[in-house]
Amino acid sequence: MHLLRSPWKIGLGLVLPLIIYMVFGIIPIFISFYYSFMAWDGFSAMNFVGIENYVTAFQDSTFWLSLRNNILVVLASVLGQIPIGLGLALLLNRKIKGAKFFRTIGFLPVVISTVVISITWRMIYNSEQGLLNNLLETTGLGFLQQNWLGDPDSAIFAILITIVWQFVGLYFIIFLSALQTIPKELLEAAELDGAGEWHKIVHITLPSIRNVILVAIVLCISGSLKTFDLIYVMTQGGPAHSTEVMATYMYSETFEGLSYGYGSALSILILVFSLILILITTKVMGVKRA
Amino acid sequence: MGRTWKKPVAASLAGVLALGGLAACGNDSGSGGDDDVVTLSYWKSADTGRPDFEAFMEVVNKFNDEHEDIQLDVNTTPNDDYRTRLNTRAAGGDLPDVFQVWPGAELRPLVEAGAVEPIDDIEDYWLDSGLLEEGSFDEFTIEDNTYAVPVNSNPTHFIYYNKDMLSKAGYDSFPEDYEGFLQLIKDLKEEDVTPISLGNSGGWVLQSVYISTIADRFTGPDFLEGVENGDRKFTDPEFIQGLEVIEELNNMEAFNNDLNTIDSIQMIDQFLQEESAMVMDGNWAATEIIENKQEDQDIGITTIPLGDRNSISNTMGSASAINSDISDEKKEAAKEFLKWLYNEELFKELQSVGRIVPTNVENPNDELDPLINEMMEITQEAENAPVYDATLTPSLNDELENQLQALTLGETTPEEIGEALQDEVE
């Protein structure tokens, strides 16, 4: 209470985080913006090339492919993680045997390091020794076998499944805790009025946690735009760029291809694209400013 | 294990102290007393567990025991990430004092940015003692200055083959011409054996091990230089022919079908587990094969029988260079370190685990594995061809590696690759 009476103290406390945030978060964006007009290999003198890097990016089929893949990741996350997470939460928000066990299992992938997940799934998907193909073989479904990560048509979808699997648990836990805040009286009253399970879910449960769902969707979109580590470890964007997302493409152009200027232009495009997407989502979902 | 964390901790402590020192005295670069110990940071790429890397590090680590006035602070990074890390630090103007470099296209931008110290003044040390020849420094010489000392030559193409598996398919010796090689692949397939293991998930195997030698058999060794000064093009039929060899091998399913998802270590594992009869890899694979093969496995070595010339893509390796932006005192210490390190013991150690060194050190032949002896003979008889990634710019090399992956997926054709690369050049 003392603190609240002297706002300048709060301000003082915020100075340090603000400086850190400026130095590591905001200023680099402007530096990148500056680099994006340069041709630069990282060591030699920079050459100003105007908007050439942006023109190149728009003509670069790999860039568009990585953008498409990024959109796929966003869609798979929003349409996969959220409904599955919600479904699981509804299922386990009651007294069932082993509910705790299932909760733990569901949340487990979230706490496992992404690198471990990537390597494990890479083994599962391996076309010759992998678990998945062997399982298909032994269950007589051999005709469904694929070279999951080696075939450019299936590779990105194999990765999407892994991404959904990895984060379902997170939304499941968020929804579960939201569900537990719904007053029992409401549900009991509905039951007295003769509402079935389905009616209760649609008319009481979901509207009560509407805001939590919206927040989860925003989290989900911004999380998927940052996708990098999982793909980097699983396929490095390959084979032949087929699983490249914008962040991995930016990384390989900048740090492996030593095109710091072009890489900076790509990172600015990522920023622009993310802002547009966030803007659209907030508009569509009508998230209001507090 | 206990030792591994101490170094980083010591290094960061040293860093903190150095910062403190700087803040305190401003113009003096942190040396409290006059006869203080000079600390040198040294970066090396790591192939942990590989006998040649372990041998190299063993010699490096001896340095501190023998030098009281120079303290070496060694920092290793896994091979695949090393160049990225080094280049990123270089871009930040923050290179270590001494660091491993690769020749040609990797070294050039660092030199042009003025980040590397010439070592012409100590070159004679190796020439006079006969440890290295003038030619050993060629790839590290840019515009008349020499910048690094190499310790081994690094042929990037051999075929290792399992003699028993070949003889089961009816071959007592390796085919002598390309037609015979293709027939061997067909016969192995009949036996239900994967002919060649390939692990190209990192993209570099098809580039460094395959195309560098295969294309050279058609184009000749001056091709890449010709492309650089505009005399020749990636669309030339000779280069396309080289790509067609890879397309042909891929089309006849000479490779394991997970070639794009496994890496170069897994491809050697497949070969050693006899899931395949051959594997193409550089000389570095020999050490791994000797170390890990089953006792009764009889492994042969050769190069691809293709074209009239017997060339092997080759480059110099494990070279170290000095940062140009350090104090004279440190430069002196760094030169002393290079002289001490690149010496008979290191050459001997590396040769004994199967690396090819560009000098005649006395390692009695019967102490070497026959595979190594054979590899050295093959290398001596072969013409040298340039390795693509040691010659092309990183972005062009990146493009080539991705295009080669696309070729194995049937997404592009040799002609289209030629055009895409030529576009990138222009």
From TrEMBL, chain A:
<feature type="transmembrane region" description="Helical">
    <location>
        <begin position="212"/>
        <end position="234"/>
    </location>
</feature>
<feature type="domain" description="ABC transmembrane type-1">
    <location>
        <begin position="67"/>
        <end position="281"/>
    </location>
</feature>
<protein>
    <submittedName>
        <fullName>ABC transporter permease</fullName>
    </submittedName>
</protein>
<keyword id="KW-0812">Transmembrane</keyword>
<dbReference type="InterPro" id="IPR035906">
    <property type="entry name" value="MetI-like_sf"/>
</dbReference>
<dbReference type="InterPro" id="IPR051393">
    <property type="entry name" value="ABC_transporter_permease"/>
</dbReference>
<feature type="transmembrane region" description="Helical">
    <location>
        <begin position="12"/>
        <end position="37"/>
    </location>
</feature>
<keyword id="KW-1003">Cell membrane</keyword>
<keyword id="KW-0813">Transport</keyword>
<feature type="transmembrane region" description="Helical">
    <location>
        <begin position="104"/>
        <end position="124"/>
    </location>
</feature>
<comment type="similarity">
    <text>Belongs to the binding-protein-dependent transport system permease family.</text>
</comment>
<dbReference type="Pfam" id="PF00528">
    <property type="entry name" value="BPD_transp_1"/>
</dbReference>
<feature type="transmembrane region" description="Helical">
    <location>
        <begin position="155"/>
        <end position="179"/>
    </location>
</feature>
<dbReference type="InterPro" id="IPR000515">
    <property type="entry name" value="MetI-like"/>
</dbReference>
<dbReference type="GO" id="GO:0005886">
    <property type="term" value="C:plasma membrane"/>
</dbReference>
<dbReference type="GO" id="GO:0055085">
    <property type="term" value="P:transmembrane transport"/>
</dbReference>
<keyword id="KW-1133">Transmembrane helix</keyword>
<feature type="transmembrane region" description="Helical">
    <location>
        <begin position="71"/>
        <end position="92"/>
    </location>
</feature>
<keyword id="KW-0472">Membrane</keyword>
<feature type="transmembrane region" description="Helical">
    <location>
        <begin position="260"/>
        <end position="280"/>
    </location>
</feature>
Automatic annotation (TrEMBL), chain B:
<dbReference type="InterPro" id="IPR050490">
    <property type="entry name" value="Bact_solute-bd_prot1"/>
</dbReference>
<protein>
    <submittedName>
        <fullName>ABC transporter substrate-binding protein</fullName>
    </submittedName>
</protein>
<keyword id="KW-1003">Cell membrane</keyword>
<keyword id="KW-0449">Lipoprotein</keyword>
<dbReference type="InterPro" id="IPR006059">
    <property type="entry name" value="SBP"/>
</dbReference>
<feature type="signal peptide">
    <location>
        <begin position="1"/>
        <end position="23"/>
    </location>
</feature>
<keyword id="KW-0564">Palmitate</keyword>
<keyword id="KW-0732">Signal</keyword>
<dbReference type="Pfam" id="PF01547">
    <property type="entry name" value="SBP_bac_1"/>
</dbReference>
<keyword id="KW-0472">Membrane</keyword>
